Fold:
Amino acid sequence: MTAPLLSALRPVLVLFLLAAPVGGEATGERYETLLAELRQAQTEAEADRLNGEIWQIWLTAPDEAAQEVLDAAMLRRQAYDFVGAIRHLDRLVESYPDYAEGWNQRATMYFLIGDFERSLADVDEVLAREPRHFGALSGKAMILFQQGKVPLAQIAVREALKHHPFLAERAILNAPSGTEL
Structure:
């Protein structure tokens, strides 16, 4: 029963986690404004616009050297060399441990190769640095759902929806009958 939902949501999650361009800094008034506006978004189109701007901020590394490593990892990812991307991201999180998106991108790569335990460990690192990271929260929900931990997945989805009300992962809340929501 969970396989069709996971199959349907996996491409959405991957695109959501990986498609945004680079462009800002994950601090400051603009970032806080975007998060507040996203929480209050009334339409999916409005949420999509805000989502893209937030991802631009998240995917901007702390400095030029970090950006070069992140960009190299993204190129490896685009070539479907997830292990190569992980090697770059290992360097990034080692050199810039406070940069939440470095951890998130490595969590995504681990997700893509099916190493859910390492992915969850990196998601925890992301959330320790940015608890409002709805991408990490939704990724956590997908992994927990895949593992059959539906109640825990639903908790993660509910937390993500506090920050992004139009996430596709909300479908996890439509669990099979008999599953407590």
Residues 9-25, 175-181 have pLDDT under 50 and may be disordered. Residues 75 and 123 are 22 Å apart (CA to CA). The chain has nine helices and no strands. The radius of gyration is 16 Å.
